[in-house]
Design goal:
This protein is α+β, with helices and mostly antiparallel strands and about 400 residues long. The chain folds into 3 domains: about 100 residues, Trypsin-like serine proteases (Thrombin, subunit H, Beta Barrel), CATH 2.40.10.10; about 80 residues, Thrombin, subunit H (Beta Barrel); about 130 residues, Nuclear Transport Factor 2, Chain: A. The chain is about 30% helix and about 30% strand. It is built from 10 helices and 16 strands. It has a 6-stranded antiparallel beta barrel with strand order 1-2-3-6-5-4. Strand 5 and strand 6 form a beta hairpin.
């Protein structure tokens, strides 16, 4: 028994040693693994990805919005309201650090001294130092505005589709802003007192009182043109390209004209012209009775109907743009009494996508007010989609606190 046991024991010992040796060799050939190293690598990758993604996209939209708001804010402070002793009113903008204000010639007429009101309601006296007989531009010097940083002037021609912002004081509403694009180039036609050549056509709504104000680039705020004409039938605006008149403006600024008021010429040339093509209005002939200034009559029938219609157009422009606060400011006190809050007023148009004015006609009520009859084509949300509706309406327009307002509306 002992002889058999000893060899068996030796075999077992040899096998055990072989197994130990094999394990030892295996551990030497296999690289040592740090069990936490793989998760650490993955963690690093995840952390790097997070560091890259988090800051990238969030600020972009905020920056774009802030940029447009900044352009509007910076530009408004350099846009002024211009008034003459005859009651003509328009807009202008600071052109250089000498206090020179660019505006339209038809805004200042043949006057030499004008009143200038800034966006912060400061009032200055200005002197017309340049006025063209051929182009509808003028330059007013306001010494009190000297050494103020002017608006940046764009010396290149605008391109079709460029975003623009139109600024001014339409209908006495100072600091009004409308947004649009350059929708046409090189437009030319004969206006009331000037031939307008190579104008920009713009979609930004303009109204009486916008004349002389700037259109600025929606990208960098530089001045592209001067608001000059509104084609009332089509309800589009036209602006004189600023680059085209820079040599004339610089000449006046360096060598001011010595202007004198000529009474006869002044009386003939200075109706309250706001750059509109009045003959395009339906019913123009009905109001073709101009009354000379200074004869004790205050109603100038050539122009009041156009202003009344302009209020209505401007009202719907604001509604279409979703600018309910501005639209609300155009309605009179009695109308506001029936819609006492801006929220209630805006809610009435919440389901309206867009509106268009069809066949407007202006009537003189004989009591200092005017009636505008028209049809509104409205695209509206309904329960099962969208629909087009038509409304026959009559608006009453008149003065309230010396500003034209929508005094009332009714069906017809």
């Amino acid at each position: 028994m002992k002889k058999v046991f000893i060899p068996s024991l030796l075999v077992m010992i040899v096998l055990l040693l072989g197994m130990l040796l094999a394990y030892f060799l295996y551990t030497l050939d296999t690289p040592k693994q740090d069990k936490v190293s793989a998760p650490e690598v993955k963690t690093e990758i995840v952390e790097k990805k997070v560091e890259v993604k988090v800051p990238v996209k969030v600020p972009v939209k905020v920056s774009e919005t802030s940029s447009l708001k900044k352009i509007i804010k910076d530009t408004q402070s350099k846009v002024v309201q211009i008034e003459t002793s005859s009651g003509s009113q328009g807009s202008g903008f600071l052109y250089n650090n000498r206090g020179d204000i660019v505006t339209n010639a038809h805004v200042v007429g043949y006057e030499v001294d004008v009143t200038v009101k800034t966006s912060d309601q400061q009032i200055y006296q200005g002197q017309v130092i340049g006025r063209s007989e051929d182009t509808d531009i003028a330059l007013v010097r306001v010494t009190g505005l000297a050494n103020i940083t002017p608006l940046k002037i764009n010396q290149k021609k605008a391109e079709l589709g460029d975003d623009v912002v139109a600024m001014g004081s339409p209908l006495g509403l100072q600091n009004t802003v409308t947004v649009g694009i350059i929708s046409g180039l090189d437009r030319s036609f004969q206006g009331e007192s000037y031939y307008y050549n190579n104008l920009y056509q713009i979609t930004a709504p303009v109204s009486p009182g916008n004349s002389g104000g700037p259109i600025v680039s929606g990208t960098d705020g530089s001045v592209l043109g001067i608001n000059s004409v509104k084609h009332s039938t089509e309800h589009i605006g036209f602006s004189i390209p600023i680059f085209a008149v820079l040599p004339t403006l610089k000449s006046w600024s360096d060598n001011p004209m010595n202007l004198t008021v000529y009474e006869e010429e002044y009386e003939f040339e200075l109706p309250e012209y706001d750059g509109e093509l009045y003959e395009d209005y339906e019913g123009y002939e009905e109001y073709d009775s101009y009354t000379e200034p200074n004869d004790g009559v205050t109603e100038y029938y050539d122009f009041i109907p156009d202003d009344a219609l302009g209020v209505v157009y401007h009202y719907y422009d604001y509604l279409n743009a979703g600018q309910y606060e501005q639209a609300y400011e155009l309605i009179g006190g009695n109308w506001k009494a029936s819609s006492p809050s801006l929220e209630k007023f805006a809610a009435g148009y919440a389901q309206t996508l867009n509106t268009s004015i069809i066949d407007p006609y202006v009537y003189d009520n004989g009591d200092g007010t005017y009636q505008v009859d028209l049809t509104i084509e409205a695209q509206e949300f309904v329960s099962d989609g969208e629909q087009t509706s038509y409304y026959d309406l009559s608006y009453v327009i008149g003065l309230e606190d010396d500003v034209l307002k929508l005094l009332g509306v009714g069906s017809r």
